[in-house]
Structures are given as structure tokens and as C-alpha cells.
Amino acid sequence: MRNDNVGLIGLGAMGLSMGKNLLKNKFNLTVFDIREEPIRVLEKLGAKAAESPKHVGNTSAIVLLSLPSSKEVENVVLGESGLLHSLPKGGIIIDASTIDPTAAKKLANECNKKSITFIDAPVSGGTIGAEKGTLSIMVGGPNDEVDECKHVLQAIGTNIYHVGNTGAGQIFKLINNMLVAINLVGISEGLVLAKKTGIDLKKLYEVLKTSAGNSWALEQKLPKMIRNDFEPGFKVWLQHKDLTLAMGLASQMNASLPMTSLAHQMYESAKAVGFEDLDHSAVATIIQRLSLKEMNK
To answer: Rounded CA gap, 122 and 98, in Å?
Structure first.
């Protein structure tokens, strides 16, 4: 039977939009974040405010998480005021964060001890996809429980893929974000070369988006890179975090990832010069500096 008592923890750029879409779909929504402002936004739209993750668990059958890293997810699930102290038996935690696959498996094991299911469901599509409810969702977890919470996933995304057991969703997401990062570094190199030769950059974008060099990253980011507009969607530090997770997984699997390693170093450099809160396309400025020419010249 469908259960519409849903909790949402983490109301950042992605989570806030997820909350709005859950409310549009008539869920009984309880929300929590460490910041008051986004809670008040959703409260005005009909959500109930919670004082802690534990409070969210008291009022929910399914809880959706949208948090920055493994540390925050573990604290929200296992901490003193965590969900495991209140979510009822048979409850489901859907983690839409991007975290270490090993951490996802650990959390699933701890939840199982309390007869709670932990599902990893990282998302792709950025803030625009979150706003429109068109995210791609890579779901790892047991079949019956994934089916039980599919109505929640359908409220925030349109491409829902059940990719395997818990932890598999995170592996799919890390590979996706590896490719985005490598793509952005390659686009940055193309932009540097284009600027040095003096060709028409707008025409370059027009040609590339209908040619074999096209990609999601190029279509979404190159126009902003040309304008030197790095207002954040997906921040540099988040891209770096995901690349670090991918490199850690590669080490565990004895997999050689030379292009990912290079992209990781480029994002390490972007963080080092203070770009951590800019959009991840700001890696273009690092490539630009290697060519001794500023983006706005």
C-alpha cells in the first residue's frame, strides 16, 4: 500500500527543489535542515518542520536524504538524534546524496539490524533537473523496497534505474561524475585553444553542439564558460569530493584511471586557489592559467 508520509533531510540547492516537487505531488512532508531559511520556505508551501532527524523519523515511513557527503549521511542515520532511533520497523531511507559505496553498504547493514531498509539513490541532472523534477536516479537496493518507494522517486525524477543491490547506485553515480569532470577539463582545453587562435567562440559552440564533440557538459556549461560565468550549480568542492571517492574505489579495485586522476588534480588546483564554491566549470580558469591568459582577456 502506498504510504505518503515522507521526510526530507537536507534542503540545499537540490533538496529544496525536491521538497517543492514532493509537495506538488501531495505528499505529507516533514523536513529538516541545519538552516532555518529553507525550512521556512517549504513550511509556507505546506510542509511540517522538524527539530531533528529523529523527529523526522517519528512522523515518516520513508525518509529522503540530500546531503553533502558520507559524514553527514552517517550522522543523520546513526547519530544520537539519528533516524535509527525513531524510524519505525519497515521504514525506508532513500539516500539521494553521493557518498562512498562502502559507506552505503555499512549504513544498509546497520539499518537492517533495526528492520529498516537503506536504499542508495544518487541523482543526476543538476539544479535544473531538481527544479523540474526530471532527475535521473540510480537506485541500489532490494526489489520489494525499491518498488515500495518508487512513487517518491517518481515525484523528483523521470529516469529511474534500479541498478543493483545497495551501493551499486553510488558506483554508477561516481562513474557518471568522473565522465562529467573529464568532459569539463576537455572542454576547457578546447576553449583555451579557441581563445588563443581568435576564432568566434559563439560560433564554436553552435558548431560543436551539432557535432561529434557534443555532450551534456558542453551544452550546459560552455556558454557560461565563454562568458566567464561561474555562478554555482554543482560546486567545485563537490566535484572534487566525487573524484576523490572514484579514485578511492579505483584503488580498491586495482583499476587504472589516468584521465580521472588528471581531472582530480585539476579540481585539486581549483580548490587550492580558492574556487571551491564556484561552479565546477570553473576548472576552465585553471587550464587558462596554465596558458598564461586570463579568461576575460
So the answer is: 6
